What we know:
By secondary structure, this protein is mainly alpha-helical. The protein has helices at residues 3-30, 44-55, 58-61, 108-111, 115-123, 171-182; strands at 141-144, 166-169. Helix 2 crosses helix 6 and helix 5 crosses helix 6 (171-182). The chain is elongated and about 80 Å long.
Amino acid sequence: MNKISYTLIGAFLTLLLSGATLILAPYFQFKDSPAPAALKPYSAWEDLGRRSYVSNGCVYCHSQQPRDPSFAPDGIRGWGRPSVPADYAYDTPHLLGTMRTGPDLFNIGQRQPSEDWHHAHLYQPRSLVKGSTMPSYPYLYKLQKALRPGDVKVTLPPEYEPKEGVVVATDEAIALVAYLKALNHTYAITSTGRAAQSATPVNATSVK
């Protein structure tokens, strides 16, 4: 065998070992992690919002994986306890994220339960968070002359209100907010790091 053959075989074995270590081992280790009782499957409306979350690129700037205190002070930041495999039982694909241009959203539903806040924040982030670098999503909303039955009006600070008409949420915006409100993983976990099979909530610091 020549050097090229040895190189190819070495590269193949390296890929095989990497796959076994990073994919197969975690799969067999965590495949039997049951969903905690307090964690519910996404509703059809929330699932639609989850797809909007992906298509609008939210995953590029926000993570959904609070880390252990030995790695980062995520708990002090108000993002909740470290996540465990069972927390993602209904997530396909997982939206862990790789960057934190914005805060972690693993528990944004607990930190910000207000639909009005979320709609105003999506329409114009700087109307609520001065200096925010988050892009605005005005195309998820529409400007109407007046409210119609069933419309969800976006309440904005006076300086951001339109001079005429009202800002109304589209179905996509309503679904996206429903998904964000569903991100609430404040139930307890066991000492072994698995999610407890009970609906016992734990407190989390409330921050924006």
